[in-house]
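[step 3/7] inverse_fold.run input=structure_tokens len=503
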């Protein structure tokens, strides 16, 4: 039986409405001013159930002894871009020192390599655990547990866990029921809490009642709203959450809520801005947020919506009640979007001729002390219809001194173009059509993870490749890397891990 952590109300005055029943704005403000105990309806337990591994795209390496399907023609075409280029030689004078975590899909164990591509440490993870190394040598992992209702959601995980430098489990949290599940990405805050992306499952009628065109709902009768939860792993309590379902606009049905002029509300998501499948179908996974980052100085959260080809910034300084409304927090906007970029047609302030992002992954603020600190970096995957090639984009959002973002009149959010872009030199082009990522190095270089094919290379600001690696084994099929990060040679967590594994 799952061990559920429940917060009980011992006095009537301390009880509040469940958090996924959106209060009115005035109610939210009244509640927040009284600072009540926050109670989320999302259940949390420590039982992550049976390990599950979703099938990879056809043609990609599977776990040992599993049959590999034939790769469809479209994927063969994508994988062919740049496939014939030999691995670049290392330029020791220009490569950034450090160690890279390699965690191929459907392969155990994960491992650390140095710039000579030698394995220096191994980790007995679950398959494809989306692992991050922490400063003390611990590892944060988002592993996959079986879920019947979310099983077809690419990137579904359900379980977050932390392991010490000795490999022992520190804590484990099941963030999954039939109503919600953790997926893709998570980040650990300085206070020890975890920010995690979740899908919230509702009947498609819920979206129709909020103004979605009934012709644009999934055949299975569901809609998944992306959200963010903050959870204290020591108490298993959700202490803050945000859901996009509270921040919608539509101009389809004047008789339904949220009706208005989309262009007048860039702070909200148009519930009818959708991605149609090649066959005209609509997924229940509406926006497919695939990465999250946190900026402690701004107290803001950065999200990447793959299906809408857009990045969003939201305010973390709100109370969990204010996050459901349109006021409160440092910038007075509640949980509304503070900044968005990548596809201005999504909020009717431009056309797709001005589109900047195409199914991007791994959005992040460049960390303090690194070249470009404070800018936003994202791997721009491209797509098979308009842009069958991949780039890396760095942008400088236009900001005011108080951490708010410049938005002039009826114009879209700036900038009009990137501050820097990695476009591979002729003959070095590639197309990684899913997963993947990028990371800024201390020497100004950028590490690029070609997730489709499990290749990693480091490029200079001029786009020269100075280091490159490809994971291969006896499997006659390409592998996958969700993310590949380099940790500096003086990273304290590396020393803790090496010391532990040397014992």
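[step 3/7] decode complete -> sequence:
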């Amino acid at each position: 039986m799952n061990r559920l952590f429940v917060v009980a109300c011992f006095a009537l005055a301390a009880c509040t409405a469940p958090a996924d029943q959106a209060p009115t704005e005035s109610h939210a403000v009244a509640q927040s001013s009284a600072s009540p105990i926050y109670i989320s309806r999302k259940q949390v337990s420590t039982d992550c159930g049976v390990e599950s591994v979703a099938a990879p795209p056809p043609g990609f390496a599977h776990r040992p002894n599993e049959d590999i399907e034939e790769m469809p023609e479209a994927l063969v075409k994508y994988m062919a871009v740049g496939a014939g280029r030999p691995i670049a030689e290392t330029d020791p004078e220009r490569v950034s020192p450090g160690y890279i975590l390699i965690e191929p899909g459907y392969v155990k164990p994960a491992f650390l390599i140095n710039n000579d591509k030698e394995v220096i440490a191994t980790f007995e993870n679950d398959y494809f655990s989306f692992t991050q190394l922490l400063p003390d040598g611990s590892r944060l992992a988002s592993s996959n547990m079986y879920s019947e209702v979310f099983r077809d959601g690419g990137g579904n995980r359900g379980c977050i866990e932390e392991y010490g430098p000795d490999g022992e489990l520190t804590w484990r949290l099941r963030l999954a029921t039939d109503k919600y599940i953790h997926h893709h990405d998570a980040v650990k805050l300085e206070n020890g809490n975890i920010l995690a992306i979740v899908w919230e499952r509702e009947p498609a009628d819920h979206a129709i009642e909020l103004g979605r065109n009934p012709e644009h709902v999934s055949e299975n009768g569901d809609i998944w709203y992306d959200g963010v939860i903050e959870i204290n792993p020591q108490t298993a309590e959700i202490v803050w959450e945000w859901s996009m379902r509270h921040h919608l606009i539509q101009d389809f049905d004047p008789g339904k809520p949220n009706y208005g002029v989309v262009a007048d509300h860039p702070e909200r998501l148009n519930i009818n801005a959708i991605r149609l499948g090649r066959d005209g179908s609509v997924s229940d996974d509406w926006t497919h947020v695939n990465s999250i980052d946190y900026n402690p100085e701004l107290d803001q959260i950065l999200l990447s919506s793959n299906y809408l080809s857009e990045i969003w910034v939201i305010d973390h300084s709100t109370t969990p009640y204010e996050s459901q409304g349109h006021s409160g927090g440092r910038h007075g906007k509640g949980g509304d979007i503070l900044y968005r970029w990548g596809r201005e047609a999504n909020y009717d302030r431009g056309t797709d001729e001005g589109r900047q992002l195409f199914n991007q992954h791994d959005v992040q603020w460049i960390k303090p002390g690194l070249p470009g600190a404070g800018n936003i970096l994202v791997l721009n995957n491209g797509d098979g219809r308009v842009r069958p090639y991949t780039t890396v984009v760095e942008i400088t959002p236009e900001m005011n001194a108080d951490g708010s973002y410049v938005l002039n009149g009826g114009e879209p959010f700036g900038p009009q173009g990137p501050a820097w872009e990695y476009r591979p030199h002729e003959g070095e082009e590639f197309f990684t059509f899913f997963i993947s990522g990028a990371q800024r190095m201390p020497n100004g270089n950028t590490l690029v993870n070609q997730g489709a094919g499990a290749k990693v290379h480091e490029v200079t600001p001029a786009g020269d490749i100075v280091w490159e690696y490809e994971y291969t084994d006896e499997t006659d099929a390409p592998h996958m890397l969700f993310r590949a990060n380099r940790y500096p040679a003086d990273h304290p967590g590396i020393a803790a891990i090496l010391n532990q594994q040397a014992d």
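[step 4/7] annotate
The helical segments are 25-33, 73-80, 204-209, 492-502.
The domain at 12-64+71-502 is CATH 2.120.10.30 (Neuraminidase).
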